[in-house]
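Entry
Fold in token form

___
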Amino acid sequence: MPQLGTGELTDMTKNESFKRRVRARMEKTGERYTAARRQMLDKAAQHSGRQWISQPEMSDEVVFDATGRRWDEWCKVIEESSFVGQGHSAIAGHLEEEYGIGGWWAQAVTVGYERIVGIRLPYQMPDGTFTANKSRTVEVDGDVLRKNLLESEHRSDMFPGQETTLRSKPESKVVRLGIGLGVALISIDPKPDGRSKVTVAHEGLPTYEDVAEWKFFWTEWLNALDG
């Protein structure tokens, strides 16, 4: 039988203790488990005393469910470690190795911490650039759209006033286009009803302000596709 490490035992103990306090509140207030749990998480956040510079992508409840700690607890863990100030990769590697939360969650927790303390702005990547994301299900045949994106003649009609450069191979699943100040990754997911879900990730934007501009651009572009 595998042995639990100290960190895992601590997380398990904390989770069980929290659940007992939630059940105690349920008995006192008559609330359902979800409502009582939400109230306790909100109360804990209000009394943490930490000022958040910006919000992480995931809520306190989501990160607690996945990792056994809330955001303020993770901030404390990181700031009390010797890895704070050593960069994103060092912190994420420490969390994965020391707390066993897996690579994806180690990255997500590190990004959340960086947003909370102001090291990273919303939509900012580890290299300092920004990414604008938009998606929509449109009334377009996926194969036709893909073909048009791959051909420069059709792209001129699809992106009037914009210079575009194909950055991916024709057989690549995701179409990469150089456009504006970065590169747009366009994925097309055909639906059984003939429509297609189109997802755009415009990477390499130099400033936070560029995100709003390109989000608007891609919103209008997707609206035109659906027209």
In short: The chain has nine helices and five strands.
